[in-house]
Design a protein that fits this description.
By secondary structure, the chain is of the alpha/beta class. It has ten helices and eleven strands.
């Protein structure tokens, strides 16, 4: 069982019965207890699109803290990087391609359920030690209820968490995970949609501000030169800014599967 799951399985209560009722701020007593270890606002960081470039991957691996490493299965270095990341104590994730992405592992809407399952199995085999999954692209897939329900059920059976990258404002992925009580998160901020140094710096500042405002922030970046340079410079300064940089398991425990205000109301995803 992946390391992060010992935490996840102990803190998350089934949410299959969640419907019209609100999720109270302290419904999950275990999650609150774990979160109380630190009262500081929390930041979790995931780096996407890994496995393509050994030099960039090495810089991500060298970042001094709990980076989630989302590895593309159809890349040259996927398996080796997953092994190295696991050995280094990082959280390994499968960065699952979804339409409009293509390739041998991509989930696409025209494919039958059996083929989607086969692609997930094959992708996980390429990324050993994965504790969770997030979508690569997916704007043509995450708004489809049936395949998302199938994916979340499969991840639950495998004891894997899901991070909704929210590449489509109409995504149903996080809401589907919430309904069945699957350990899950939603991305708050992309660091580098604009990969210029100025834009990346502005997004990082926005992430810190959002963490202070709502208590936690989930950030996704990519191994662009400006992103790597900023993270190498700024991550060691987070504690001085009153931010607790935590791993994804602790962030799941902190949020307890509740939606942030930008993604829902009263803890429920839209």
């Amino acid at each position: 069982m992946p390391r992060v799951l010992a935490l996840l399985l102990g803190v998350l209560v089934p949410l299959a019965a969640v419907g019209a009722t609100d999720i109270a701020p302290h419904d999950n007593g275990d999650a609150v207890d774990l979160a109380s270890v630190s009262r500081m606002p929390k930041l979790a960081l995931v780096m996407d699109d890994l496995g393509q470039n050994a030099a960039r991957d090495a810089r991500v691996l060298a970042l001094p803290g709990p980076v989630g490493m989302a590895i593309l299965p159809d890349t040259r270095h996927a398996t080796e990087l997953a092994e190295r990341a696991n050995a280094a104590g990082k959280t390994v994730m499968l960065h699952l391609p979804m339409a409009p992405a293509d390739g041998p592992y991509a989930w696409q809407p025209q494919l039958p359920a059996a083929e989607l399952d086969r692609r997930l199995n094959d992708a996980l085999a390429k990324v050993p030690h994965a504790s969770g999954v997030n979508n690569h692209m997916g704007s043509q897939m995450t708004d489809r209820q049936e395949p998302m329900a199938s994916l979340m059920r499969e991840l639950q059976q495998r004891h894997l968490f899901f991070l909704d990258s929210r590449t489509n404002a109409a995504t149903v992925a996080a809401a589907t995970a919430q309904r069945i009580g699957l350990a899950s998160l939603s991305r708050d901020i992309f660091l580098d949609d604009d990969p210029s140094p100025e834009a990346v710096a502005a997004q990082f500042r926005a992430a810190v501000q959002l963490a202070h405002r709502q208590g936690s922030v989930v950030v996704i970046g990519h191994p662009h030169p400006a992103t790597l340079a900023l993270l190498e410079r700024e991550l060691p300064k987070l504690a001085a800014q009153g931010i607790d940089w935590v791993d994804l398991g602790q962030m799941i425990a902190t949020r307890g599967n509740r939606a942030m205000i930008a993604h829902g109301a009263n803890g429920l995803y839209r």
